[in-house]
Design brief:
The complex is a heterodimer. By secondary structure, chain A is α+β, with helices and mostly antiparallel strands. Chain A has helices spanning 6-14, 17-72, 82-89, 127-146, 149-179, 223-268, 289-316, 326-343, 357-364, 366-383, 408-424, 456-472, 486-497; strands at 94-102, 108-114, 119-122, 193-196, 201-207, 213-221, 346-354, 389-395, 398-405, 440-447, 478-480. In chain A, helix 2 (17-72) runs antiparallel to helix 6 and helix 9 (357-364) packs across helix 10 (366-383). The longest helix of chain B has 10 residues, at 55-64. The chains are: A alpha+beta, B alpha+beta. The A-B interface holds A 66, 69-70, 72-78, 103-105, 107, 109, 136, 139-140, 143, 151, 153-158, 160-162, 210-211 and B 13, 15-17, 19-20, 24, 52, 54-56, 58, 113, 115-118, 120, 145, 148-153, 162.
């Protein structure tokens, strides 16, 4: 399976940890505040709308009963009495309503009321009926001239009724033409209300009560809802802004509080492990996770330092012989040279090599060879002044003694003592020609404190050269590098320069 | 007669504006020869109507339950013999007396007559004396207001309601 880590890598490369913390938390806060604000706004809004709908429904219920009764009996007068009109007008924010019903005899019953004129009209009123009435009126009028006196009061009454009917009909048609097209019934679907926020109108639909089939749909002024919406939006936005600003400040503070200690810890890790002062590691006193991290870190550094000290000790000493190692020679001999110069004393390098040691190993085996090496090292160590001299195992069967003496004679004497003490060990060495015991050849080189030019390397080469002379002269002897070797010394010095 | 559960209520026409102070419909002196088409009751004032009772029933009971000292009375409905077929269809009616409703106790006659298709109303005692001024519920305007309001029930001045069903 191939998992692409490119985006996160890019993120890490692009932003620092503190920036990443800040950005991610800011995004989180924005999302949370946005979500909460939206939820709160929607909750407030829906509650307010529902309250407004409840109020509208409750106010309409006071007239729905009468409207239902009227619709059941197709009563147009009952819904248009002054009391009824007043009751409509008193309903707060009611602009308009329509009743769409079937009477008990299944006749259509459609009336409307509008606040502007506070009047009710029959929506289905048609001028065709007016024409019929007009015809009846004309007939009656013609009868009036020819009728008997006893009948005239009946004709007059009938005429008045017809004229009233006609006027009422015309008024209904006029009202329908004037106000019938102002409000349209919206698509309620399964809902009991529709809110049109653009026109600030609330439409509600209430079924008629009793056995009357039909419903009332009414239009209410919803401008207060619009005001509420704007006020709520402002309030929620203001609160969201405060929350975001506060959160940003908090995130900034928290990021700094987390990152700065880490940064200080990182700074304390700079440089050599040995140079780190465990006691001064920052944040150790904290009791939180960062404090734990700092404490763990300090503990780790302490362990590493202890382990390094152990390793360093191990590398300073030769494991087999117990004398100083070649690594110790490389690091300490130069210091001894400088020390001798500073103390204005002679400095000597004595190179010691066990004679025919390969043959010794061949004869006795490496195990006995190792024991011989240990014995020789012991003899050498016993010969030196541990305060001013040090024995190093340079490699194989070769040892180096670095010494600091008050005179050249002391150095020569020390070399001779070293050789002699090895001989005196009387370690059998049948392959060492005529000698019969383990012996060593010694090469010596030395300088005065006034010699500030000769290097340790040059001194070693001189001593090594003298050692080979001792080997050539028959072994088991000390050869001090003569002054005539200055050319060699210079050559060594020039090599060193190179 | 069909529609036995129908009660027909007839009012006496009275002037709305005051110009028709007495009955407009004439007293039908031959009413005893008219066929009775329905017999029902005018309930007393102690009767409690169900809430689901129609507005028409509520209004009618409220208006006429005082008659006979609120004890209720039988109501007989008669239709002019020549207008029986017109009555079955609730009109249209030809000119002349159409129907009467007689409250047996204490003997009140509500008359409906038609002229040019317009219903005229009147209230008499059984001897033919105009009593439309004796009580507000006998006035022509009361009859007219009631008949004209309930267009689903009252068609062309004669009306029926399922009042019997409400009490059944």
């Amino acid at each position: 399976m191939i998992v692409s880590t490119q985006p996160s890598d890019n993120m890490r490369r692009r932003f620092s940890l503190s920036q990443l913390l800040f950005i991610t938390h800011t995004v989180l806060v924005l999302w949370l505040v946005g979500s909460f604000s939206y939820t709160r706004y929607m909750s407030e809004w829906s509650s307010e709308v529902e309250a407004e709908v409840r109020l509208a429904n409750a106010s309409m219920h006071s007239i729905v009963k009468e409207l239902s009764f009227a619709a059941g009996g197709r009563n147009y007068n009952h819904v248009a009495t002054p009391e009824a009109l007043n009751s409509y007008k008193e309903i707060q924010n009611l602009f308009y309503f329509e009743v769409d019903a079937l009477s008990q005899n299944n006749n259509d019953y459609k009336i409307a009321w509008i606040k502007d004129v506070n009047d009710v009209w029959n929506i289905d009123a048609s001028l065709e009926n007016s024409d019929t009435l007009e015809s009846q009126i004309r007939t009656l009028k013609s009868k009036l001239d020819t009728s008997l006196e006893s009948e005239r009061f009946k004709i007059n009454y009938a005429l008045e009724r017809l004229i009233d009917k006609q006027e009422l009909l015309i008024n209904h048609v006029r009202l329908e033409n004037l106000f019938g097209n102002i409000y349209y019934q919206p698509e309620f679907g399964g809902n009991a209300y529709v809110l049109n926020t653009d026109s600030c109108l609330l439409y509600i639909k209430i079924p008629l009560i009793g056995s009357t089939e039909g419903y009332v749909w009414a239009v209410f002024d919803a401008s207060n809802l619009t005001e509420f919406k704007i006020d709520t939006l402002k309030l929620v936005a203001r609160e969201a802004l405060v929350a975001i600003l506060f959160s940003l400040a908090l995130i900034f503070w928290a990021s700094r509080r987390i990152i700065q200690p880490i940064h200080r810890l990182a700074q304390s890790m700079e440089g050599d492990i040995d140079s780190i002062d465990v006691e001064s590691i920052p944040e150790r006193d904290r009791s939180d996770e960062l404090g734990q991290l700092a404490q763990r870190y300090a503990s780790l550094i302490k362990r590493i330092q202890n382990q390094m000290l152990g390793l360093r000790r191990q590398s300073l000493f030769d494991v087999l012989t117990g004398v100083y190692s070649r690594f110790a020679y490389e690091t300490q001999a130069i210091l001894a040279l400088e020390n001798a110069r500073n103390n204005e004393r002679w400095f000597g390098v004595i190179v010691i090599d066990i004679d025919n040691f390969k043959a010794y190993n061949d004869h006795f085996g490496h195990s006995v060879g190792d024991e011989a090496l240990q014995a020789v090292a012991k003899a050498l160590r016993a010969s030196i002044n541990p305060h001013s001299d040090k024995v190093y195992r340079y490699g194989g069967e070769e040892f180096v003694v670095v010494c600091e003496k008050s005179s050249s004679t002391s150095i020569t004497m020390l070399a001779e003592l070293l050789r002699k003490n090895v001989w005196l060990r009387k370690l059998p060495h049948p392959s060492n020609k005529d000698l019969g015991y383990v012996t060593c050849s010694v090469g010596v080189s030395m300088i005065e404190s006034t010699d500030k030019e000769t290097s340790l390397k040059a001194l070693f080469k001189k001593a090594d050269f003298a050692l080979y002379q001792a080997k050539d002269n028959g072994r088991n002897q000390v050869i001090t590098a003569p002054a005539t070797m200055c050319n060699i010394i210079k050559s060594c010095a020039s090599e060193e320069v190179e | 007669m069909e529609r036995p559960f129908f009660v027909l209520v007839f009012g006496v026409l009275a002037p709305v504006t005051g110009s028709f102070a007495s009955s407009l419909a004439s007293y039908p002196s031959d009413w005893k020869r008219w066929p009775m088409v329905n017999e029902t009751v005018n309930v007393g004032r102690d009767v409690k109507l169900p809430e689901s009772a129609s507005l028409f029933v509520q209004r009618t009971v409220a208006r006429y339950s005082w008659i006979n000292d609120g004890r209720g009375t039988a109501v007989h409905v008669y239709v002019h013999p020549d207008k029986l077929e017109q009555y079955k269809t609730h009109g249209p009616y030809t000119d002349g007396p159409t129907a009467i409703a007689i409250f047996q106790e204490p003997g009140i006659m509500f008359v409906t007559e038609h002229y040019a298709g317009i219903p005229l109303y009147g209230t008499y005692d059984l001897q033919g004396a105009d009593i439309s001024r004796q009580h507000p519920s006998f006035e022509v305007k009361a009859c007219m207001a009631c008949h004209e309001q309930f267009q689903d029930i009252c068609v062309n001045g004669t009306c029926g309601d399922r009042v019997n069903a409400a009490f059944r």
